[in-house]
Amino acid sequence: MGPVKLFQDKLRTISAWRLAIELGSSPSNLLLEMSMAVQRLETITKSISEDPLST
């Protein structure tokens, strides 16, 4: 999984976030979802930088 894939995942997350706002999702759920998505991205990024051969 390279940087391009990571970027696409991030864009997808942002798109989902914007869609949720437009649908009037409750702010607390939205914040929870976003923080979880950010944590997942950070975990993926960290695992790539620590072990580039695993991708």
Largest sheet properties:
none
Our count of helices gives 2
- The beta-strand count equals 0
Q: How would the global form be characterised? A: elongated
Task: Tell me the number of structural domains.
Answer: 1
Sheet-strand content, in percent, reads under 5%
The value of Rg in angstroms is: 13 Å
End-to-end C-alpha gap: 5 Å
Order of helices and strands: HH
Structural class: mainly alpha
Overall pLDDT, averaged? 77
Oligomer: single chain
Share of residues in helices: over 70%
Low-confidence stretches: none
Indicate the topology.
Layout: H1 3-22, H2 27-50
Keywords:
55 residues; elongated
Describe the protein in words.
- This protein has 55 residues and is mostly helical.
- It contains 2 helices and no strands.
- The protein is 80% helix and 0% strand.
- The longest helix has 24 residues, at 27-50.
- The model has no long low-confidence stretch (mean pLDDT 77).
Summed up, what is this model?
This protein is 80% helix and 0% strand. It is an all-alpha fold and 55 residues long. Helix 1 (3-22) runs antiparallel to helix 2 (27-50).
